[in-house]
Specification:
The chain is an all-beta fold and about 100 residues long. It contains no helices and ten strands.
Length: about 100
């Protein structure tokens, strides 16, 4: 198994910790019980550098040329053509970029 090298971590309201690693198209999820699983992202989201978790546990992921909204399985919910390097989601679900 390759070394575990998370770059960024974010917590979800359900207690899960999400993380990304270098050079893959997956986000990892660690449950409060310690189980680690991976969510495969669409191929155009290879090697995500930033992401955030919304209050509804969905994932917001900026790529520099667009912002993608994904469910917890990696399914694309929406995409927006905005140039953003970082995103944040307020407790009311408002997206900031």
């Amino acid at each position: 198994m390759a070394p575990f090298t998370p770059r960024l971590m974010a917590s979800a309201p359900n207690g899960n910790i999400w993380f990304n690693e270098d050079y893959n198209n997956q986000l990892g999820v660690v449950t409060p019980a310690g189980k680690i699983s991976y969510v495969t992202l669409p191929s155009n989201l290879y090697n995500p550098q930033q992401f955030t978790i919304a209050p509804d546990s969905t994932v917001w992921l900026p790529t520099g040329s667009a912002i993608f909204h994904l469910d917890t399985t990696g399914k694309l919910l929406a995409s927006y053509n905005f140039s953003a390097q970082n995103v944040a989601v307020a407790s009311d679900g408002t997206l900031w970029f």
